[in-house]
Amino acid sequence: MGGISVTGISDSLMEMQAKKNTLLLQPYQLRQKNIESKISAWGKIRSSLQTLLEKSNALKNDAFYAMKMSENKAFSASASSGAMAGTHNIRVSQLAHNHTLSLTMEKGIDTPLGNSAATRNLKISQKGENGQIKETVISLAQEETSLAGIAKSINGKNAGIRAEVKSVDNEGTQRLILRAQDSGSAGEMALSVEGDTTLAAIMNYTTPPEEPGDSTDSGEVSEKIKQDLPATDAIIWVDGNKYTRSSNTINDILTGVTLTLKQTSKDDESEALTLSPDESAVQEAVEEFVTAFNDYITQSSSLSKFTTANYSNLKTDTVALPDATNGPLAGESLLTDLQALLRRDAGSNYGNDDVTSIADLGIKVDAKTGKLELDSTKLKNKIHTNPEEVQRLFLGTEEKPGLAGVMSDHIKGYVGRDGKGNIIKDETEKLEKDKKEAKKQLERTEATIEARMRAFQKQYQQMEVAITKLQSLQGSLSAIQTLSKN
């Protein structure tokens, strides 16, 4: 036994066990890492699908309803679904105004304007829609009868009126401004004060003395509330017919068209509003759809890539691993089915006559990659010469759905629709459960290995002690033998 070196024997044995344990843990660690990679990969797939869904919906909901609008001085216009090409004669006779009153005083902003009564009531009446009178009663304490107090009390009641106090000059003159939140005659205000004749003389307001459209704002101290802007409705003539509206934004005269009135028509003359299909909007929407589709194909192909691993030089003490270039979703039938579904959607027939598939628009499907190849010139010509057929291909008819609708429905099944049919979410939740279980398995295995290592360490240390004792005994016996020979 003299040839045995005791020093560090337990450390060497423990190092050997640690290497074995590393190999034992590796499958559990790899499983946990693979699950995390799959969760991340499905998140990327979901993101690219949502972008593709957005572009499909743009084709379905907006692009084919986009209109080019003429530029007009008295009004501007915007179009949405339902708008039709054509020309309309429009004349703006009167703009809608928010009723505005003001009170200008040389007294301080916090100086009470009422008498010494403890309380009084300020009643605000507005015509409201369809002649339904709206009344708000505000109780004011004596200290609340100042310009600032009145403004604060009105704003605190949400009475449909915005009140504010403005400094007029450097002499301390202040102006209380009351502005109806609703424009037109519906917002016309009437004010009356009960329980304070002093404040009533200042604040009571009923029918204005001026004709509608006139302003009494001279900028001078008034000592009594007055009208700055009347509560007028908008008056507009469209194709010879008169319309009255309470707002300068009007969306119920021309279907799918919103008119925003800016000024009255010059010399009471009509302007022509021209609506024509915006072919560039369709072109742009189709091009963005193609880009989104190709981005999805690139993403999904990368995440599902598979290369057979080369194990010819694998060592006996090494774990066999998949090829490092493989995607985390390689071999996932769920993704494979989705890829096949969307490629089939892109390559199917939807239209009739001159335009039956996207190939007729100059969009080819690459048989090898599955990506779409776009001929922008051919697409532009088709949109210009046969817009109805192009629209039918993407939007479909009542009898037959179009490409945009079919693909949108399929994508929604994977990313969710109205809280239902979220295949990717279901798969991700399943993976999250697997991840938790894999973590528990790893922790249990680590705990088992740790306990085993402690036991090994104790055994190896005991072995070292025993060997040391044997070596010591051997030394003693050798010494006795030497003495006996002498």
From TrEMBL:
It comes from the Bacteria. Pfam families: FliD_C, FliD_N. GO terms for cellular component: bacterial-type flagellum filament cap; bacterial-type flagellum hook; extracellular region. InterPro entries: FliD (IPR040026), FliD_C (IPR010809), FliD_N (IPR003481). Residues 231-472 form the Flagellar hook-associated protein 2 C-terminal domain. It is found in: Secreted; Bacterial flagellum. Residues 3-99 form the Flagellar hook-associated protein 2 N-terminal domain. Keywords: Bacterial flagellum, Cell projection, Cilium, Coiled coil, Flagellum, Secreted. Belongs to the FliD family. Homopentamer. Required for the morphogenesis and for the elongation of the flagellar filament by facilitating polymerization of the flagellin monomers at the tip of growing filament. Forms a capping structure, which prevents flagellin subunits (transported through the central channel of the flagellum) from leaking out without polymerization at the distal end. PANTHER family: FLAGELLAR CAP/ASSEMBLY PROTEIN FLID, FLAGELLAR HOOK-ASSOCIATED PROTEIN 2. This is Flagellar hook-associated protein 2. It comes from Sodalis glossinidius (strain morsitans). The lineage of its organism: Bacteria, Pseudomonadati, Pseudomonadota, Gammaproteobacteria, Enterobacterales. The gene is fliD.
